[in-house]
């Protein structure tokens, strides 16, 4: 009964997305994208696309999204947006972070990426252009993946803060009390596996085309690098997402170590009142700023 209920909810959601999609205009980039996608299919095998293509997408997107935050440290006029202004980035910290990233990306995440092809084969996930869902459907699926990942992240992240295990695993991620974008995936290898598992749950629920894997990777990296950026930028379009946590919310977690355990959204922290210390801090911050 529960499985049927979930299936009915997902079917209704897909119908709602398709209904909204029928009113939206065509993607103006559809023709060049179709040409590029078909060129890729004609020149590379599914294994190459799923494995090396996914690795390239991850590395390119990760460091591309890290680049603005890296540049901000050299721009004096951007420092007014830095949340912890008394803790600037240093070359020593960034080099330490970069070395850990290389280890995690190629020794932990790459072996997982190598399973992508077998995952798509087992679940008969298509690669062809004609089966590709339109962009509103992909966005809706990414949102669904984010909801699932955020739920997993909240409870497992909170568990990793338990005093009996914190120092063995999650303490590594808290080496930096003032986070910066590149630090988003700086973590103990065990944490990379534990919290990273939430990424794949949504894929198993929603994935109906190879494009969703890459779209969800892109969205997840954009979100996690943004909340770790250390900069609260005005007019950030991600703040249009309902209940989006943002950099100031997660920055407080690194500064305070307690509370604000959600990855993307704030609702679990609100429900369990684990954002109470942040709310007091932020209220005081706004009062001081307005004086």
UniProtKB/TrEMBL annotation:
GO BP of this protein: lipid biosynthetic process
Any single Pfam family the record assigns to this protein: FA_hydroxylase
GO cellular component: membrane
GO molecular function: iron ion binding; oxidoreductase activity
Domain Fatty acid hydroxylase: 144-274
Residues that span the membrane, as ranges: 60-78, 98-118, 192-217
Subcellular compartments: Membrane
Record's keyword terms, sorted: Membrane, Transmembrane, Transmembrane helix
InterPro entries noted in UniProt: Fatty_acid_hydroxylase, Sterol_Desaturase_Related
Name assigned to this protein: Fatty acid hydroxylase domain-containing protein
Lineage of the species this protein comes from: Eukaryota, Metazoa, Chordata, Craniata, Vertebrata
């Amino acid at each position: 009964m529960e499985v049927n209920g979930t299936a009915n909810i997902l079917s209704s959601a897909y119908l709602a997305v398709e209904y909204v999609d029928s009113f939206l205009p065509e993607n103006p980039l559809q023709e060049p994208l179709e040409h590029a996608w078909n060129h890729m299919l004609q020149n590379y095998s599914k294994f190459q696309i799923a494995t090396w293509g996914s690795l390239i997408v991850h590395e390119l997107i990760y460091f591309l999204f890290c680049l603005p935050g890296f540049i901000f440290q050299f721009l004096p006029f951007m420092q007014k947006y830095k949340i912890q202004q008394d803790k600037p980035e240093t070359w020593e910290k960034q080099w330490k972070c970069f070395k850990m990233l290389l280890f995690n990306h190629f020794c932990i995440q790459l072996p997982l990426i190598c399973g992508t092809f077998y995952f798509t084969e087992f679940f008969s996930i298509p690669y062809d252009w004609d089966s590709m869902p339109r962009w509103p459907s992909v966005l809706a699926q990414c949102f669904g993946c984010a909801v699932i990942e955020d739920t997993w992240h909240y409870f497992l992240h909170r568990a990793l803060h338990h005093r009996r295990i914190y120092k063995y695993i999650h303490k590594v991620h808290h080496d930096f009390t003032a986070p910066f974008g590149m630090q988003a995936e700086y973590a103990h290898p065990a944490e990379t596996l534990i919290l990273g598992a939430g990424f794949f749950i949504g894929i198993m629920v929603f994935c109906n085309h190879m494009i969703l894997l890459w779209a969800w990777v892109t969205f997840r990296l954009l979100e996690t690098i943004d909340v770790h950026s250390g900069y609260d930028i005005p007019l950030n379009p991600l703040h249009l997402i309902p209940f989006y946590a943002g950099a100031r919310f997660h920055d407080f977690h690194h500064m305070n170590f307690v509370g604000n355990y959600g990855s993307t959204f704030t609702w679990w922290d609100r429900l369990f009142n684990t954002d109470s210390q942040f709310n007091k801090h932020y209220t005081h911050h706004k009062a001081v700023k307005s004086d």
